Amino acid sequence: MADVVFNHATVRERADMLEFLELCAQRDLSAVSIWGNEIEKVGEARALEALSAHGLRVSGYNRIGPFTPEGLGRARAELERAARFGADHVFLFTGGLASGEYDLPVARNRAETVIADLLPVVLDLGLKLAIEPLHPMLVGDRTVIASLNHANDICDRLGEGVGVVIDAHHLWWDEQLEAEIARAGRAGRILGFHVNDWLIPTRHLLTDRGMMGDGIIDLAGIEAMVRRAGFAGPVEVEIFSQDWWRRDPAEVMDIALERCAAIFGKDRAA
Ligand code: ZN
User: Fold this and answer.
1) What is the mean pLDDT of residues 51-74?
2) Ligand 1 centroid to 217 CA: how many Å?
3) Other beta carbons within 10 Å of 97
4) Residue 49 Cα, ligand 1 centroid: separation in angstroms?
5) Nearest residue to 115 (alpha-carbon basis) of 92, 89, 139
6) How far is the CA of 99 from the centre of ligand 1 (A)?
7) Quick one: how far is CA 247 from the chain centroid?
8) Ligand 1 geometric centre to CA of 205 (Å)
9) How far does the centroid of ligand 1 lie from the alpha carbon of residue 69, in Å?
């Protein structure tokens, strides 16, 4: 099961970063995805020490954004911290339209300019920026990048230092999904594959994601697309859910690992 990475957000309500790292190490996992605000809660020195004591690598680092003056004011410090943690990639969170703004193309251009402006620092630090398109229902307030096609277009224009993360919950509906995953694969820009599920009904857009297997997404089918596109990295479990946050973190992780084994197979190396 070395091919599964947990995003700390999956258990963050009941496990701080130190507990989370220990839970991952107990399950022989080799990498984690982490959050800057969770590092601050336990202190950077302790977080780094625990990471190294457990021999864990950092896959994804959350995050740069939102793309407001305040959010961008922290961007450089976040990137430097991501580099200190040895992160493979850093997530971008563009945020939605500005207050009183109606012009989505302008907002999209502005976001792309921000990403372009970050790239020299990113390359200098040896990092990669990850564009993770979010579900279109989040365009108003969370993101201006809601399709893999749009993310691929931005990457085509910006070149080195930026790639995409494919999150099943956000992208499962897209009739161009296989073609766009293949396009990202040809460009060698798939940085991550996030798994979870889409529940019927979904009661909340941000905090009612499903555990893999509880919803309607053909996760094995999407994984096959990602593998055909040449992505050999881990599946990352990322579930934002009031229901799962209430449960014991160790139990949540064990259930997720069982589901991953059932859906994605047991013996692939990360
Ligand atoms: Zn995700």
Assistant:
1) 96
2) 15
3) 16
4) 26
5) 92
6) 25
7) 22
8) 13
9) 24
Ligand 1: centre distance to CA 133 (Å): 9
For 155-206, what is each residue's pLDDT tens digit?
A: 999 999 999 999 999 999 999 999 999 999 999 999 999 999 999 999 999 9
DSSP string, 52-88: HHHTPEEEEEEEE--SSHHHHHTHHHHHHHHHHTT-S
Contacts of 255 (CB under 8 A, 6+ apart): 211
CA of 118 to the centre of ligand 1 (A): 21
Q: What is the mean pLDDT of residues 128-152?
A: 97
CA of 134 to the centre of ligand 1 (A): 8
Whose tokens are 């994601």? That residue is 209
Q: Which residues contact 77 (CB under 8 A, 6 or more apart)?
A: none
Domains plus CATH for the chain?
Answer: 6-264 (3.20.20.150)
What is the whole-number distance in angstroms between the Cα of residue 100 and the centre of ligand 1? 28
In this structure, what token pair is assigned to residue 59? 């896959």
Ligand 1 mean position, distance from CA 159 (Å):
22
Q: Are strands 4-7 and 129-131 parallel, antiparallel or unpaired?
A: unpaired
- The confidence band for 268, taking pLDDT boundaries of 50, 70 and 90, is very low
pLDDT at 82: 98
CA proximity to 185, closest of 227, 149, 153 = 227
Output the CA 236–ligand 1 centroid distance in Å.
8
In angstroms, what is the span from residue 13 Cα to ligand 1's centroid?
Answer: 17
- At 124, list the tokens: 């200098």
With 70 as the cut, is the pLDDT of residue 77 above it?
yes
Running DSSP on this structure, what letter comes out for residue 182? Answer: H
User: The whole model's pTM is what?
Assistant: 0.96
